[in-house]
Amino acid sequence: MENAVYMIAAARTAVAPSGGSFKHLNYDVLAAGIIQHCLKEVGLSNAQVDELIVSNALGAGGNPARHVVLTAGLPKKIAGLSIDRQCVGGLDALLLGKALILSGQAQIVVAGGTESHSLRPKRYYKTVPENDYIYKDQAPFIPPLYADPLMEVAADQLAQKYGISQLEQDTWAIQSHAKALKAKEKLRQEIIKIAEAQILNDSFTRNLTLETCQRAKAFSASITAANTSVAADGAAFVVLVSEAVYKSLSLKRALRIMDGETSGGNPELPGVAPIAVTKKLLERNRLTSVDIDAVELMEAYAVQAIVCANACGFSSEQINRSGGALSRGHPIGASGAILAVRLFYELERVHSLGLASIAGAGGIASGILFEKVM
Question: What would the mean pLDDT of 17-46 be, rounded to a whole number?
Answer without folding.
Answer: 96
